[in-house]
Amino acid sequence: MRSVVTATVLVAVLPLLLHPGPRPALRVAPTWPADTSRDSTKDTVPKSDSLPLATTRTVSFDVSEGTWMSLDLSPDGQTIVFELLGDLYTLPVAGGTATRLTSGPAFDSQPRYSPDGKHIVFLSDRNGAENVWICDADGRNAKPVTKGATNLYASPEWTPDGNYVVASRTSVLGSIYELWLYHKDGGSGTAMIKSGVRGGLFGGQGWNTLGAAFGADPRYVWVARHRNGFGYDLKFPLWQVAIYDRQTGKTFVQTDLYGSAMRPIPSPDGKWLVYATRYDTETGLRLRNLATGDEKWLAYPVTRDDQESRFTRDLEPGSSWTPDSRALITSYGGKLMRIEIASGRPPRSRSRRTSCSGWDPWCASRTTWTRDRYRSVRSATRGCRPTGSASCLARSTSCMSWISVAPRGGSPMIPSTSRPRRGRPTVSGWRTSLGSPGKAAL
Questions:
Q1: How many angstroms separate the CA atoms of 330 and 191, rounded?
Q2: 83, 169, 176, 72: which is closest to 129 by C-alpha?
Q3: What does pTM read for this prediction?
C-alpha cells in the first residue's frame, strides 16, 4: 500500500520537476461555515410530482358526440351516469343538462350505480395507477377500493346485495383478465375465476374473463370468456358468453357464434339477455329470450368491438336496462341511445349541439325524418336512396344489398342472410314482413 502511494505522488510531482520556470501557485478551496439552522433530514422544497397534479389552465369546449361512453342507469330509472373524456357526468333520463361529477387530470371511467343508488363504483388512475374507486352519487367522498401500482382493471360491477364489487383484473403488461371480488370498504380481495394455465408475456393459454353482470338470480354471474390473451392475426371465434355459478364454482358457456359474443347484459326481470357480436365487418347487439332461446337483432351496427386489441376498457362500452326491463340504455354512433325492446327502435331524434355541461341523450346518428318514417343513413351504407314508398329504403353496402320495411317510427331491419352483391340498388320488386327482413329483387 505504501509503495502505491509513493508512486502516485511521484507521477504527480515529476512533470513539475522536468519543466523549469515559474510554477503556478496552488489554489486552496475556501472553507464555509456549517449551516446548522436547516435540518438536512427534512426536505423543505415541495415535490413537483405529487398526486394529484395541479392543473394550470382550464379548457372549455362544445361537444355533440362522444366515443366509447360507458354508462349506467340509476336504480330508480331517473338518472344516467356516463363517462366522457376521462370525467364522469350525470344526466336526467328524459334529457337536459349534464352535471359533471369528477374532473381533473385523472382518467375516470366505467361507472356503475350501487343497488341502492347512493354510491358509484368506477375506475380511476388519480393515485398514479389504475384502481377501483367508490364515490357518493354526487361525486363526493371518493375512496379507493383497491390499492397498488401493478394492475389494470375493467368493467367493475356491484353484487346485488351492495356489499361487494366484482371487477376483472390483470397485470400492467398482461392481457389475461381474472375475475376478482372486493369488499366495498377495501381489502386484498379474492379471485372468483382464475385464468388457469398461463405463459409468455401476454398470458399464454389462460382464460380471459370480462364484463361481469348480474341478472335476476344473484347466484349466477354473466361474463364473456376467451382462451388466450392479446395477439396478432387472431382467428374467429374468440369470445363467448358464459355464466358462472357462485355456489359450485363452475362455468357454463351460453353461446357459440363465429363472430364471438361479449359484454352480456341480462335484464332485471330475468327474461332477456342482450350481448354484442360481430357480423360481417360491424358489431351489433343481439336480443335473446331466455325462456324460449329465440334471438333477433336489437341494434346494428353499434360501437365497434375491441376484440383485436388489448380490450383495456372491456370489449364494448357499458350499457344498462331500465328498471322495468322494457328498454336498453346504451351508446353508439357517438350518442346516448334508448332502445325499446318491444319495437327495437330508438325514439324520435332531437339533435342539437350542446356544450359539455348540456347533453342530449336521444340524438340518433345521421338521421332524417320523412313522412313520420325513420331512415338511418350511416357512413357504412353506400348508394342509399328511398324507394317509391317513404317507409321503404334500398341500401347497398360492400357485401350486401337489400330493401327493408320500416314500421311506423321504426328503423329498417337488418337481414339475417343475404347474397354478397355490390353496386347501387335498383328496385324491381320486394317482399317482406315485420318478423323477417325482406330482400330486394335486384
A1: 29
A2: 169
A3: 0.69
